[in-house]
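Quick one before lunch.
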Amino acid sequence: MTQLAALQNHQVRLAKRPVGMVKDSDWNFTNEPVSEPGEGEFVVKSLMLSLDPAMRGWMNEGKSYIAPVGIGEVMRAGGIGQVIASRHPRFPVGATVNASLGVQQYCKISAADGSDKSAALIDLALAPAPKWLNALGMPGMTAYFGLLDVGQPKKGETVVVSGAAGAVGQTVGQVARMMGCRVVGIAGGKAKCDFVVKELGFDACIDYKAESVRDGLKRSCPAGVDIYFDNVGGEILDAVLTRITRHARIVICGAISQYNNTSAVQGPANYLSLLVNRARMEGMVVFDYTARFPEAIAAIAGWMSEGKFHSREDIVDGIEVFPAALQKLFSGENFGKLILRVAND
Ligand SMILES: NC(=O)c1ccc[n+]([C@@H]2O[C@H](COP(=O)([O-])OP(=O)(O)OC[C@H]3O[C@@H](n4cnc5c(N)ncnc54)[C@H](OP(=O)(O)O)[C@@H]3O)[C@@H](O)[C@H]2O)c1
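Model of the NAP complex:
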């Protein structure tokens, strides 16, 4: 039994609302003792935390699909951890969970009403922890349901995905291939483009840092784009809109090119292409699919075990590097799902 009183919890708290790019000075580091769980509570030791573009949005004041992180609060983060003390029957000591742990070393989770909605038990025998934050975790669920439910791919269609080498993009492209689609990625740099084509099996990839996306689309999608899974927004969304087919579907998953804007979000100037092509553009939020996660996990884990599905993670170490690590998402320095390892076991 761990002596909780002897443990210090190292935490990262939001110090102020950022203006533009998130900065080191937007954070405070604090320490506090770990306290014993009360009835219906359990204490989790963080192993790995998920660093997500959405964190930038959670730092802003204002209405969104989830409340902003308050000034002075521990930064919100999903993660994988191990239960080290428990007064909850479904989460015994030793269990591994996927939960909203925050950017900290220990997290006390309250499920006093007996519900298990605050955390999900995971099986590390099925896949190692990083996969549970990537293809079997929130990004994978986003890709799976965004593509299949909102995009509704049909065999033979052409699917284009931006942020192709990233967490969501990797899974979108591979699931689209499983559905019999032709898949074209858009990513920054040769290394990322080579990875999605040679290792993930995409049909082509456009390096938006080396050529115009319009030119790349003309070459890679001669018959047009039936589904565009948009992770980046901005100019790339506009370029894809010029190439869509009749009844195309555009899945609005994210707009990372716009998250650090200090002026208004750049809207799609070419939106009348939706009218001309009788096309549809629809937003999606992964949390709407929570009840169906087991379905997606079973499908993706099945493909993984057959060797048909691959994923790449970019793991950085230590809670103190969190501010610098988060910035990597916006400069494109991360190569694969960005994960902060907080402890080894
Ligand atoms: N709707 C939902 O429920 C939901 C859930 C999860 C994620 N998302 C969204 O999905 C998107 C991808 O998330 P992720 O976790 O998979 O991140 P990620 O792709 O693993 O990492 C972010 C990547 O975005 C690219 N990027 C950054 N700035 C860019 C810019 N100005 N223009 C074009 N590309 C840029 C970079 O790749 P390059 O090197 O290729 O530029 C960077 O590596 C984000 O927009 C995120 O907010 C939405």
